[in-house]
Amino acid sequence: MRIGVLGVHQECNTFSPIPTTLDDFHLRLGQDLVDHWRGTRTEIGGFIDILKRPDVEIVPILAGWAITKGRILELEFARMKQMLADSLRAAVPLDGMLVALHGAMCAEGADDAEGALLEVIREIVGPSLPLCLTLDLHANVTEQMCRLAGGVIGYRTYPHIDLYETATAAGEMLLRILAGEPRPRTVMQKVPMIVPGENMQTAYGPFAEVWSYAKSLQTPDVESYSIFGVQAWLDIQEMGGTVLAVTHTDEAKAREFCRLVAKRFWDLRKEFEVRFPPPATAIKEALETAGQPIVLSESSDSPTAGSPGDSADMLRALLDGAPGAPATLWLRDEAAVERAEQAGVGAKVKVSLGGAYDKINRRPVTVDAEVLRFSDGDFVMTGSQYSGMKTSMGRAVVLQVGAVTVLVSKLPAINIDPQLFRSQGIEPRDKKIVVVKSATAFRAEYKPFAARIIMVGTPGVSTSNIRAIPFQHVSRPVYPLDELEFNP
Ligand SMILES: [Zn+2]
Prior knowledge:
Blueprint: E1 2-9, H1 30-37, H2 43-50, E2 57-65, H3 74-91, E3 96-101, H4 113-125, E4 131-135, H5 143-148, E5 151-154, H6 163-178, E6 185-191, H7 206-217, E7 224-228, E8 241-247, H8 251-267, H9 279-287, E9 294-297, H10 313-321, E10 327-332, H11 334-343, E11 348-353, E12 365-375, E13 378-380, E14 390-392, E15 396-401, E16 404-409, H12 419-422, E17 433-436, H13 443-446, E18 452-455
Parallel strand pairs: 1-2, 1-3, 3-4, 4-5, 9-17, 9-18, 10-16, 10-17
Antiparallel strand pairs: 6-8, 7-8, 11-12, 12-15, 13-14, 15-16
Helix pairs in contact: 2-6, 3-4, 7-8, 9-10
The chain binds zinc ion.
The site of zinc ion (ZN) has 4 residues, from loops.
């Protein structure tokens, strides 16, 4: 059996001031794709492992991912679709396909970019080729995705520590279809609510309650189910949470399952709301807490949620409110990296940091810094999420600003893994305060050694204050922008 493997990932933030280009995805084809992803705890790594059977030939189609930014530029998305079409035309005939997509990717002219990619696939392989699709828990699932894919499975964890398991579950589903099991159907129920990610953990809190309620309702008619909280920063019409079920047997029963779970999700909507202290209050609390490191999360500037990563708000607050406390943080500022490069290692420079991209929410701060070291900014993720995945923050410099060790890079950086700092010679355990820019995913890696985690509220394009997000295109009414009745 020839099984095509495809993975294109991006969680778009339509409010980001920086658009996405095709280069951001580092798309790979052919054997290069397999060599790059094999052995990683990702969907593609999972696909490769589950298909390692004597009766299966893995046919690599296309794979890559981009960090969160604004919509993909129109012509760049057209090029992506062309690359996919060319690679797939060269690969057919296939017996089946495994496809990993995020589910919250948007392009100019395509609110449902994943639906558009699935359309390209179906045009080439036809409507009946068995295809199983995996999605991120923050996917904005559409009718189009469910119709064009056969079976759809989402992550069951946030922080996402089950990419690999999600992929192997999809692989098993596909292999059962190819062995003669009836085709599954995916049914879904949208939930008209937008909730912040911070309370979307699956181990505890309101979202965990929704998941365990779903588990208690599952019958043999529901082969698999997924619940999608959807990430908040999508200003598109078909926006909201989703409950989805895959069935071989009774579509009506699967729909009833989705309806009941959606109702429970809706009923808990107020429990998802969060309120965070401003930087000065959070820093004061951190200094009053015994032990270290105290991890302060500024989720409004999270690069994995589409923020530019250019907030110097926490640096300013640390210099003001904790002048002697060893602390570290990352921020993105190309000009500052270049300024430091001109000065060289060991030099003392006056440099402006922050506010380079988000001119609405950010202000730069000018500081005296010592240049400690440079690097190419590459690092390998080693925690429980994306383990083995290589990533890069671009050319990077470590600056010492008072007691704060500031890591500055040219590209956005994933903030969820302490390897961000360790790869640059900075040990978070040695600091009283570590600032990370991530809503929830960082918890999986930092919680085991953090003395305490405190969320910090600043404005930004990935703010958790849903009512402050300038939505224009989202279908109304929707909670919490409107008060409404919802009876699925
Ligand atoms: Zn996610």
